[in-house]
Amino acid sequence: MPKQVLFDPAVKKAAKFGKRPGAGDGPGMDGQSPFAMPVVRQEIANMMGDLITLLTRFKARLENLPSDEGANVQAAQRLGLESRPVHRTVRGEMVASKSEAAIANILHALEKEGRLTYQISPEVPFAMRPAAHASFKVEANGATWFWEHCDMPDAKYKRRFEQKKELYGKAGFSVYAPDNQTGRLIVTEDSEEKGLDTQAIAQLTGTLFAN
């Protein structure tokens, strides 16, 4: 019974010191503590049981709430952490962000036209610990490009990426730019205001990988 579980320790303690259960706990009817009255004790035990039941149900509901996985992925990316691939490309591969999926789909369309071949998440062309990967590796017109896409980079991520770019440079892959058209490292990033500009990506790939 609930009241036995709740009140047996108090009864044993009172007996140890030679006290009547409830004595000295404050006057009630007939000079006894209200907690010594069977009816009141039973009501309190019932209330405690109901409270435990409600809390158990509430805990179960919290555990069963769906998580916002997309938000978790974006948070990991903003912290510069590795996130698991959760977005499927047209070619059927998994990537870590919607932006990478969009870029992969643009590359896939060019691959179908025979203008290039590409890999997703290739190893970088230099030693790095822990092991690092680029977003893409593109082969076209006898040349190799590595592509790094940065999803909503924060200051910490940018500092780490600058170090990575230096290693790319030492390996012979400088950043492509209008004034450095021999560069074989493509760097793109999301805008905080607009996200990924897929039109700009399509124009860039059309320029670089034209037959």
Description of the structure:
With 211 residues, the chain is α+β, with helices and mostly antiparallel strands. The chain folds into two domains: 2-63, no CATH class; 80-208, Trna Endonuclease, Chain: A, domain 1. The protein is 44% helix and 12% strand. The chain has six helices and six strands; from the N terminus they run αααββαβββαβα. The strands form two sheets. The chain has a four-stranded mixed sheet, with helices on one face. Strands 1-2 form a two-stranded antiparallel ribbon. The longest helix has 26 residues, at 38-63. The termini are far apart. Mean pLDDT is 77; it is low at 1-7 and 65-82.
The gist of it:
It contains 6 helices and 6 strands. It has 211 residues and is α+β, with helices and mostly antiparallel strands. The chain folds into 2 domains: 2-63, no CATH class; 80-208, Trna Endonuclease, Chain: A, domain 1 (3-Layer(aba) Sandwich), CATH 3.40.1350.
CATH topology of the largest domain: Trna Endonuclease, Chain: A, domain 1
Give the strand tally.
6
Q: How many distinct folded domains?
A: 2
- Per CATH, the architecture of the largest domain is 3-Layer(aba) Sandwich
CATH class of the largest domain: Alpha Beta
Helical percentage: 40-55%
> H/E element string?
HHHEEHEEEHEH
Question: What proportion strand?
Answer: 5-15%
Q: Which spans of ≥5 residues are poorly predicted at pLDDT below 50?
A: 1-7, 65-82
Give me the secondary-structure category.
alpha+beta
Give the CA-based shape.
Answer: elongated
Biggest pleated-sheet summary: 4 strands, mixed
What is the CA-CA span between the terminal residues? 84 Å
Query: How would you state the average pLDDT, rounded?
Result: 77
